[in-house]
Amino acid sequence: MNTKSDSKNVLVLNSGSSSVKYTLFDLSLNRIAKGSVERIGSAEAFIVTDTREVCNVPDHNTAVELVLNKLFSNVIKDKNDIVAIGHRVVHGGEKLTLPSVVTEEIKDEIRKCFNLAPLHNPHNLSGILACEKLLPGISNIAVFDTAFYQTIPQYAYLYALPYYLYKKHNIRRYGFHGISHQFVAEKTAELLNEPLNKLKLITCHLGNGCSITATKYGAPVDTSMGFTPLEGLIMGTRCGDMDPTIVSFISTSENMSLNDVNKLLTSQSGLYGISGISNDMRTLTEESEKGNERAKIAIEMFCYRVKKYIGSYSAALNGADAIVFTAGIGENSPTVRQKCIEKLDKIGIEFDASLNKETRQGLISKKDSPVKALVVPTNEELMIAKQVITLTNN
Ligand code: ADP
Question: Architecture of domain 178-380 in CATH?
């Protein structure tokens, strides 16, 4: 099939540890193509477009090359029809606070954040380097997951550590999933038919990684992920909040290096660690319904942590106008949403169980609930494309 478009386009790339996801938009933000290369580096690597094809993909450069070959053979005429490439970059540190055209200095700053987001930043940069090589002359624009959080006040982003550690090493809360929280906040305003600068929102991004953000009149005031994406909610394999003394305690009592303890907290904990079965909420829901006690407690703990954050962010905002659920779990699990927000009527959330079961996008609280609750599917790629177009127009 050959349906090559005449339009100019923006390509958005999300380069992860073993996958490169791509979306092509025209300049009116219509989606033209979408797909991914997955299991990079393994013998079972494949590319998904309209179909799924097994390929040899040893590295990210090959993955991007495959994506471009697909696009050039089916969707776009040549590289000049790509106005710019937007890249999701997870950690921008204190310096990278706006979408930025990638230069040598920007790449150096992204590298400086490698140790803060080791699961993400190195792969994000690989995607950029591959595009520089394969599409010379086309602008690469980095959009940072941390950038949305620039408005968080100092009393919320500082840790209660000796102040010199902040000055010397920039140890502070950065916040992540900003691209998603910003998209969802804007979309919620649209759905509620209210201007964003009049709304106080609590957005819950519940995917493999989970975070919750309080946004007041369009600007975030607090968020659950911190110095790294490990803090806050319980996640697929990440522990979220806990007493920091546990780190040295495990290191001593299990005879593990600090590095190994870090790995345990990042990739062996969370839903997976508690249940001992899976990091996948679908599996845990099924197992819990069959009576598996550890799957059940993992889900209880997950939802209770979300509920506690909703309570504390309601206080931070002096009352929210709406609580919003997004990402894999937030969009697809009525069970989890119910456990997170039922019995919160004393803080104004009047939950509607039947709307919650049916709704794909929109209200899950009673229509006249003082605090609304909604489901809003996220679209990080669209948010990146929007920011790329704004930057290139300027
Ligand atoms: P990522 O952070 O990798 O982008 P996603 O946003 O895709 O993750 O979310 C992945 C999570 O969403 C997994 O825990 C998965 O089990 C969960 N999920 C997806 N669909 C459902 C569903 N129908 N019910 C419960 N959980 C779901």
Answer: 2-Layer Sandwich (3.30)
